[in-house]
Amino acid sequence: AAKQQIAEKTIGLFKKNMLVMVEGGTTIMEIAKKIPEQLQATFFTLSPQVAITLAEHEQLNVISVGGHLGKNANLHTGAGVINELADIRVDLCVIGANGLSAKEGLTDSDWEVVQVIKAMMRSAKKTAVVCIAEKLNSVQRMKVCGISDIDYLITELPPDDLLLSAYGGRLIKI
């Protein structure tokens, strides 16, 4: 239910003719399922499962960025993916969080995934992080970015929830 609430909030960021880059994972899958049928946009993704789900939307142009398929994250990773991402400029990048802390920023436990997410963020004008509340104030082993590098933080919580108070003062739209 929390991931469906996050998906509902996230689709409000999508506009006609946008270029959007999305990662993978269960929250991103919920977002892909909830995209309105009438939305015309181009989506880039590193996830085969997300690409298939997005392709069910007739109005979407879906581009899968390929490379080595990491079995843990079910994402394409590696130097080839990072090189491809260097040539893409999208309006919005949507990333799932494995760890997010106001002090440590966005973190993950998979080195290859961290490198690809950094490349995704470099290719985007704006970055949205989708994060269920249980992953807030948690830290993984490797840093993806500081909290100031995130433009939007989307959770199932209301924006005035006390758990989010540490994030709101850092120029993030919650």
Notes on the structure:
- It is a single chain.
- With 174 residues, the protein is an alpha/beta fold.
- It contains six helices and eleven strands.
- It has helices at residues 2-10, 26-34, 48-55, 79-86, 111-122, 165-168, and strands spanning 19-22, 41-45, 60-64, 68-70, 75-77, 90-96, 99-101, 105-108, 124-130, 142-145, 152-154.
- Strands 3-2-1-6-9-11 form a six-stranded parallel sheet, sandwiched between helices. The chain has a three-stranded antiparallel sheet with strand order 7-8-10, with helices on one face.
- Helix 2 (26-34) runs parallel beside helix 3 and helix 4 (79-86) packs parallel to helix 5.
- The radius of gyration is 15 Å and the shape is globular.
- 39% of the residues are buried.
Give the helix/strand layout.
Blueprint: H1 2-10, E1 19-22, H2 26-34, E2 41-45, H3 48-55, E3 60-64, E4 68-70, E5 75-77, H4 79-86, E6 90-96, E7 99-101, E8 105-108, H5 111-122, E9 124-130, E10 142-145, E11 152-154, H6 165-168
Parallel strand pairs: 1-2, 1-6, 2-3, 6-9, 9-11
Antiparallel strand pairs: 4-5, 7-8, 8-10
Q: List low-pLDDT spans.
A: none
Q: How many H/I helical runs?
A: 6
Strand portion, in percent?
25-35%
Q: What topology, given as strand order, has the largest sheet?
A: 3-2-1-6-9-11
Number of extended strands: 11
Shape, principal axes of CA atoms:
globular
Rg from Cα: 15 Å
> Could you give the order of the helices and strands?
HEHEHEEEHEEEHEEEH
Helix content estimate: 25-40%
Largest sheet: 6 strands, parallel
What is the straight-line distance between the termini?
19 Å
Q: Please, what is the average pLDDT? A: 93
